Amino acid sequence: MIYLDNSATSFPKPEAVYTYMDQFYRENGVSPGRSGFDAALEAEEIIQNTRKLLTKFFNGDDSERLTFSYNASDSLNMLIQGIVEKGDHIITTKVEHNSVLRPVYHLEMDGIAEVDRVGFDSHGYVDPEDIKKAIKKNTKVVIVNHCSNVIGTIQPISEIGKICKEAGVLFFVDASQSAGAIPIDMKAMNIDALAFTGHKCLMGPTGIGGSYVMEGVPIKGTRFGGTGVRSAVKTHLYEFPYILECGTMNTVGVAGLYAGTKWVLEQGVMKLHDQEMALWDKLRIGLQNIDKVTTYCAENVENQNPLLSFNLEGWESGDVGTMLDVDYDIACRTGLQCAPLVHEVLGTTEIHGTVRLSAGPFTTEDHIDKAIEAVADIATIPR
Predict the structure, then answer these.
(1) Helices assigned H by DSSP within 218-305
(2) Long-range contacts at 165-171 (CB < 8 A, ≥ 24 apart)
(3) pLDDT score, position 225
């Protein structure tokens, strides 16, 4: 299989991730921190070490404010529902994934919050000035997808963060596609809360993600249960990390995330990015030279991650994806990619979305060549 669906989840993982998870779970697969025996203490240690590693990775200050969850969608739900109150105004964008669109829509539908959704231009970028113009007296939070999972454009987070700080508005970032792919400095970018997932560019397993919340952000807990400490207290604990965590941790997932993040750091974030973008550019040029192919917001390697959406004239995206899979053994993603507003702006909703190809650390030039050849072959089939 030629795997070009890394935006869904990176695959394969580095060998170090498989090895570390297997060894960890065999030796320390117990409940972390709940007991005083050695294996439990060592399980807790990997959690704390991963908090510290990712806190440094995002340039935070307090590793206790780095919390773990199932994935970015899980953390975004907790962050959004934990900050928005009756009468608040939310600003988000049309480049968002459903992990933001849906919780925000539910708050709007239930009459809790007012929402504005800022569009993006023909190149795929949100204009920070449009965010600025949308801010009102009751604006509580601006939520922006750092990198689109449909068109791969990297939004001007630093500029938006500066606007939010000057306006006294909280700024939350969905870093699902960017954490591990490009450097993120929460302080320099004025990010108040960041949600990330472990199974994409951080090269960890599925089922693990989290968030980092800066000091002073008044997040409220929305889940309650066991923490392993101060069990006699009737209510859930209000301090970090417990406010956004409850129950037994996915410790083996955290271990895999630790190994994946270490691997990314060892390779070099920008070295991996440049390698993948060179392949993306080869793919872009190859597809754009095929008659009947339309690519979306794929112009150059600047402010871009290595995923590309396209359509073939006369074809449903799903049919192209099926042929790539069945006839060429190429794995890709088709449809709306859980980001319907992006497709509304692109005009691809009625044709059921796009075909998305996304490179990763283990993608090769040969993979890209074969993908281009496959699309060229399909384009010759009469319709």
Answers:
(1) 251-267, 269-288
(2) 165/190, 167/132, 167/135, 167/139, 169/91, 169/135, 169/139, 169/140, 169/141, 169/142, 170/83, 170/140, 170/141, 170/142, 170/217, 171/141, 171/142, 171/144
(3) 84
- Domain 2-11+268-379 class, CATH top level: alpha beta
Q: How far is CA 285 from the centre of its chain?
A: 26
* 158 Cβ contact list (under 8 Å, min separation 6): 188, 189, 190
The phi-psi region of residue 332 (left if phi > 0; otherwise alpha if psi is between -120 and 50; otherwise beta) is beta
Residue 379 is predicted with a pLDDT of 97
- The pLDDT score that the predictor gives to residue 326 is 98
Contact (Cβ atoms closer than 8 angstroms) between residue 78 and residue 223: yes
Domain ranges of the chain: 2-11+268-379, 15-266
What confidence tens digit (pLDDT) does each residue in 361-375 have?
A: 999 999 999 999 999
Residue segments in the chain with a per-residue pLDDT below the cut of 70 = 34
Q: Are 181 and 262 in contact (CB under 8 A)?
A: no
pLDDT of residue 136: 98
**The dihedral of CA 43, 46, 51, 54: what is its sign?**
negative
- Per-residue pLDDT, 229: 79
CATH 3.30.1330.200 fits 15-266, yes or no: no
What pLDDT score was predicted for residue 137? 97
Rounded Cα–Cα distance for residues 256 and 129 (Å): 40
Q: How many helices (H) and strands (E) does the chain have?
A: 11, 13
